Amino acid sequence: MPRPQPRFPEPDTQPFWDATRDHRLLYQVDRTTGQVVFFPRRHSPYTGTTDLEWRESRGEGTVYAFSVVRLNRHPAFAQLGPYAVAYVDLDEGFRILTNVVGVADPTTDVQIGLRVRVQWEDQESGVSLPLFVPA
Amino acid sequence: MVSQKRDAAIVGTYEYPKRKAPGVTPLQIKAECAARALEDAGLSWKDVDGLYDAQDGAGMSGLSLSEYFGFKPNVIDTTAVGGSSYEFHAAHARRDLATGRCRVALLTYGSTAHSDARAIGTAGVGSVGAPSPIGNMQDPWGMTLVSNYAMVASRHMYQYGTTSEQLARIAVATRAHAMRNPQAVQAMTDLLYENIRETTVADVVSSRIIADPLHLLDCCMVSDGGGAVVIAAADVVRDTRKPPVWIIGAGEAAKYSENGSDITVSAGAQSAPRAFGEAGVRPDEIDVAMIYDSFTITVMVMLEDLGFCKKGEGGAFVEGERLRFDSPLKPALNTDGGGLSSNHPGMRGIFLLLEATRQLRGESTSQRPGARLAVAHGNGGMLATSHTGGTIILARD
């Protein structure tokens, strides 16, 4: 069973997920203040303006917080074994919820402050999930 | 302590005694608790003219709920902000009673989360309801509710050096209170808790990890249950049966993770100063703190945000036995046994008001001698991602 997927129509996040098909990690900037907007929206949460610009992230950042899930009854995750859910702070100034993968043992190898980079996991639905691995 | 405005008081309470209640519906629990709370107040069904509801009974609207109960309310408030809804309702009821929009406000809660076998903490989120921007950015990652709160714990440990042993102190004190409360002991029995006894720090940190760094005994139960609170205007209070418990301060807030934000700070940091300011009291004057204990980390963060200690000093604050009802230090914490060991059917906020009222009436099974001031702080939603905080300050005459 696949992971829960982003669902559409959902116009606020559609451009973000469309870009993942090309392995591009997008965020937005409020043109009136220069502030970084994430999660994606049509309006700026800082000013209410719709004068937003899409930009592409380099996909490098730092683990801000994490937890290793030992028990999840959802069928897509129940058989995974322990896995790390994390907030990653991208260098461009936005925070994304994600998984940190690519470590031998997530219960010991993921730490706050760990430098990570994006690694794409293509989905049957056509979108790709931005996961993160140690940089 | 300055003299506060005393416009509205809790005059009737009832906590549904069962935590395993097959064969009844949340709506039936709400109605039964309403009748008993009105009886406790010495008021009657027809006195209710303010209806406050978190739409927990089959998702009924304020209209349908009025019809189901048989009320003709002048005020209908269906604020639904998760577990903190009842603190929001108490704040709104006080405002409405003070301005004469209603005279007798009723808050009810009913849930059969246990009997419905809902895996609230460990089922993962997502893929229900209409597509949403927030859901689309959260659903794919397998973030369970426990892991959401655990992320805050990880960050708290990283920033302040907080330990699992310090978090465990909260669970240990709460269990000690639960063992004195026959309803809580029955709850743990009915929900098949193992080794129902007072716990130690070692018990908590050696229980299995559900989501690092939170252990099984850092997590609340999933029970059935419910309750009701009757709040009345000052002129009604004169004729009620029990001593009034006045609402002297209230605050509400929402907080969510933003770029660069500190997830160890909760909405309580915004709601509590407002509530204490309105009440004209300081945190160190509070005798009993009823703080939403979905998890031990929830309490740790809220103790700091409510002002009992500075941010980051919660670990040191909870050391030793200080949170117990019989500690010489203030405040006593979650003296009913909390969500950890007595009652958590999904939205615990109403039980915070119920036990705070018991304390100020002198009716608790873990009574803090001479308790005069209490705080009830509810937390709703998900602590790491987005949540609400509602703070209510209560005082006896």
Shape of chain B: globular
Structural class of chain A: mainly beta
Q: Helix fraction of chain A?
A: 10-25%
Major β-sheet annotation of chain A: 5 strands, antiparallel
Hey, roughly how much beta strand do the residues of chain A contain? Answer: 35-45%
Low-confidence stretches of chain A: none
- The pLDDT mean of chain A sits at 96
What's the CATH C level of chain B? Alpha Beta
Task: Report the average pLDDT across residues of chain B.
Answer: 96
Written account of the structure:
The complex is a heterodimer of chains A (135) and B (397). Chain A is mostly beta strands. Chain A has one domain (14-134). Chain A contains three helices and eight strands; from the N terminus they run H-E-E-E-E-H-E-E-H-E-E. In chain A, strand 5 (83-90) and strand 6 form a beta hairpin. The longest helix of chain A has 7 residues, at 14-20. The radius of gyration of chain A is 16 Å and the shape is globular. The two termini of chain A are 29 Å apart. With 397 residues, chain B is of the alpha/beta class. Chain B has a single domain (8-116, 222-396), classed as Peroxisomal Thiolase, Chain A, domain 1, CATH 3.40.47. In chain B, 35% of the residues lie in helices and 19% in strands. Chain B has 14 helices and twelve strands. In chain B, the strands form two sheets. A ten-stranded mixed sheet of chain B has the order 3-2-4-7-1-8-12-11-9-10, with helices on both faces. In chain B, helix 2 links the parallel strand 2 and strand 3 (75-77). The longest helix of chain B is centred in the first third of the chain and has 16 residues, at 26-41. At the A-B interface, strand 4, strand 5 and strand 6 of A face helix 4, helix 5 and strand 5 of B.
